[in-house]
Amino acid sequence: MGVLASPLDSLIWMLSRVPPDQPETTTAGGPVSHAQDLELVRRLEARDRKAIADFVANHADALYSYVRFRLAPRTESADDVVQDVFLAAWQKLGSYRGDSPLRAWLLGIARHKIEDVYRERLREPDPLPDDESASVSAAGEAVLDAEIDRRRLRERAATILSELPEPYSTVLLWRYWEHRSTADMAATTGRTEKAIERLLDRARKSFRSRWEHGWR
Amino acid sequence: MAGADALDLFLEELARSTDVVPINAPSRLKSRTYSALVRLAQRHGPLCTLDESKTLGGGLCVFEELVRITPAGEPPQRLNLCRVCHARILAEHFENAPIFWPNCPYVRFQNR
């Protein structure tokens, strides 16, 4: 795993990870490996229509989930953004060097497209005065409030995770966001389960310390 | 120990409330995206032949297979055959369209 450069990169990294019990599907039905990513890109560059179908089938759901998540509660442009991401990705295939999983690369493009949407929204006319905007329902406001709270929590969690030493953030992401067992983490890292438990304990305390210190 | 349990619960709840909920992309979106990508690929050059697609591991639908075995040479094999297929039209306009051809890309995109 590379260094998590920013909270958003942490989230993108989280999203690009495949939980052990939910492997990414391919035409063969197995998890996608680095070699398969590179092979798919090679076939795309050869303009193989079947590779294009694999490209869409393998990554559209993850991209769509991410884009809707970032655009909520105004998700009406999600379809256009997802399609734009695929088209932009195809045109930039030459710049994909395989340093990261193909999905993480696509999510990076999605992030830029979403920023374009935000910029567009900021150019929209100012909101109506209060009395004219009273048509916004109480239920709508409640949904919006819940989404704002959720975003704040997410940003805070992502910020802290990106600030923690990498072993701490990795083990917390594995344990709580990917639901991996201690035994699985031990097998992946070559450590003992006891060592993973100790690492988790230190990581949790470090996370709590930062959470309590900065939560005002 | 109680503190450790509470911290564990807190992190579990935090992860639950901040995780991205996986959603299937609409099949229409996947279909339109695939069609747009094939058109884009064509603008950059000819598609690879059906023979090449098959060699690279892609399964061909019944119409593509027919074109592949027709002794008409290479040009027809490079055509975007989906462009004239009713499966594409159905899939681009109807969610989970009633299409069932084996190896048809638009069938793969259905969420059923």
Global structural class of chain B? mainly alpha
In this structure, how is the largest beta sheet of chain A organized? Answer: none
CATH T-level fold name of the largest domain in chain A: Rna Polymerase Sigma Factor, Chain: A
Tell me about the largest β-sheet of chain B. Answer: none
Describe the oligomeric state of these chains in a short phrase: heterodimer
| End-to-end distance of chain B | 46 Å
| Count of distinct structural domains of chain A | 2
Query: How much of the residues of chain B is beta strand, in percent?
Result: under 5%
Tell me the distance between the termini of chain A. Answer: 31 Å
Structural class of chain A: mainly alpha
* Low-confidence sequence ranges of chain A: 1-7, 16-30
Count helical runs of chain A: 9
Query: Which consecutive residue ranges of chain B, at least 5 long each, have pLDDT under 50?
Result: none
- Radius of gyration of chain B, taken over Cα atoms and rounded to an integer in Å: 22 Å
What is the CATH homologous superfamily assignment of the largest domain in chain A?
RNA polymerase sigma factor, region 2, helix turn helix motif
Helix fraction bin of chain A: 55-70%
**Gyration radius from CA atoms of chain A, angstroms:** 20 Å
How many structurally independent domains of chain B? 1
Give an account of the 3D structure.
The complex is a heterodimer of chains A (216) and B (112). Chain A is an all-alpha fold and 216 residues long. Chain A has 2 domains: 1-126, Rna Polymerase Sigma Factor, Chain: A (Orthogonal Bundle); 164-216. Helices cover 69% and strands 0% of the residues of chain A. Chain A has helices spanning 7-16, 34-45, 49-71, 78-91, 102-122, 138-163, 166-177, 182-189, 193-214. The relative contact order of chain A is 0.11. Mean pLDDT of chain A is 77; it is low at 1-7 and 16-30. With 112 residues, chain B is mostly helical. Chain B has one domain (25-108). Chain B has helices spanning 2-18, 27-43, 50-55, 62-69, 86-93, 105-108. The longest helix of chain B is centred in the N-terminal third of the chain and has 17 residues, at 2-18. The model of chain B has no long low-confidence stretch (mean pLDDT 88). Chains A and B meet through helix 1, helix 3, helix 4, helix 6 and helix 7 of A and helix 1 and helix 2 of B.
